[in-house]
Hints:
There is one protein chain. By secondary structure, the protein is of the alpha/beta class. It has one domain (4-254): Phosphoenolpyruvate-binding domains (TIM Barrel, Alpha-Beta Barrel), CATH 3.20.20.60. The protein contains twelve helices and eight strands. It has helices at residues 4-10, 25-33, 50-60, 76-84, 98-108, 132-139, 149-153, 155-159, 171-177, 189-204, 216-225, 235-254, and strands spanning 15-20, 38-42, 66-70, 89-92, 141-146, 166-169, 208-213, 229-232. It has an eight-stranded parallel barrel, surrounded by seven helices. β2, α3 and β3 form a beta-alpha-beta unit. α2 (25-33) packs across α3 (50-60) and α4 crosses α5. The chain is globular, with a radius of gyration of 18 Å. 42% of the residues are buried. The mean pLDDT is 97.
Amino acid sequence: MPNALKAHLQEGKVALNAWSLLPSTYTAEFMVQAGWDSITFDMQHGLHDYASAVACIQACQAYPTTPLVRVPWGEPGILGKVLDAGAWGVIIPMINTEEEAKALVKACYYPPLGMRSNGPVRAAAYGVLSPYQSIANDEVMILPQIETREAVANAEAILNVEGISGIYVGPSDLGFSYGLPPILDREEPDMLAIYAELIRLTKARGKVAGIQNMSPAYGARMAAMGFQLITVASDGVFIGKGARDAVAATRKLLA
Length: 255
């Protein structure tokens, strides 16, 4: 069974990525029923732990939405565990150098490309027509996050590492590292110029650029700019906004 998200992106299409902060299978099911191309379970800043990420991957398997996981850090143990659990890709925070990118490849791919330990407990079921181990290196996606000055300076070297699928921009931390407020939908000309250069470097290598966004309108702008993996807000944001809008509308009617 191939990675549907990877195939979609390789065709040059834009993919919409849901973002899951809440460790709830019920919420995850609601999210994937909305029609996202992929969903990322966030173990870094979200409330997910390993058990909740696995449960949510299981809950979403009935839907055509590709499961990804943002791990807490680029540590080999957790990278291997979430891939073994059935994630088709990993987003890894704070990758700043070529050496760190090479370590990701080593941790996420089986030999000869990497040194991932064999034991794909859930993922093995994806190898319906052939063993999972024979398809994993071709189908798994590795997306290091570019979110510091150092990472921007080393972006070309990071993208040149064999096995790296592309990059995922973290606007909040990236702006923070340049002395700017930690927000998502950035308008600073210097930041937009960095985005343009990252897209250029990525496309020149036939790889994927993704970015975190807060609003649909800004996400669409980033897609027009050349980003392919577009995340819009999160389950927590949607629930909070829906609740606030309902309260405000009801109070207005009562008044």
